[in-house]
Amino acid sequence: MELSIERQDNQATVVRLAGRLDLLSAAELKQQLATLVNGGHRRLVVDLGNVPFIDSSGLGALIGGLKAARLGGGDLRIAQPAEQALVILELTTLNKVLKPYASVEEALAGY
Amino acid sequence: MPRLRRPSLGTEGTVLAEESITVEASPAQLDSVHDVLARLWARADALLSSPPGQTWRLQFATAVGEISANITRHAYVIGTTGTMGLRLRLYEDRVEAKFIDRGVAFKPPTMAREELSADTAQLPEGGFGLSIVNSAVDDLSYSRTPEGANYWRLVKRLTVS
Q1: pLDDT score for B110
Q2: Angle made by CA atoms A65, B1, B52, in degrees to the nearest 5
Q3: What is the pTM assigned to this prediction?
Q4: pLDDT in tens, B68-77
């Protein structure tokens, strides 16, 4: 999985992922999200547009980031999830807490 | 607690297609699992008049991915290696995945899976795996043989749209 970080004008941070978010890559994402939040970047958007597959470890990393961001008064939003991401979010009912946004721009709006 | 056994679907019927792999039980080998699924779907497209739709395939692939990850993560204790076998079979009415490993016995979770908390701070960051598999397929079973092999069997019925 590839990961890049992009600061936005409105002080939000976009984390762009490419590749599968699974057992192999979840720890790296969790660590990166924790580092961002600890560094004061508490308004996060994770761009899932190029993530074809997420497993429960990947979900755990996103939940970890969400909890850390909210604990610091911010939030974590997910943008343009692929169809499999929507499937696993629905299977776990985590779509109730990780509401999918159709685009990065929509996720950034109102931040 | 996630159910490990449901009223088992039958094992009868003609096998239309079969794909299998045996790989080292390592996260680095998860690519192979996705590759073998892609091969089965290609054969299903060629063989079935009404092949399963994308959401159905993704549900099955998600379940197979969870069991694969579980085996690569937990079957073999740190410092040891072993293999994971996966056999996929396409029948007229269902798709079946059967895993085998020779690692330690699977220990079912002892805590009940509760509804997700509305309080973000209380959300679990793990333990979703079996719940996902149970929701994604029609039949899930696990068994361990006296010889020390672990078998997982997942079955998902084909639905005609």
Answers
A1: 56
A2: 75
A3: 0.91
A4: 999 999 999 8
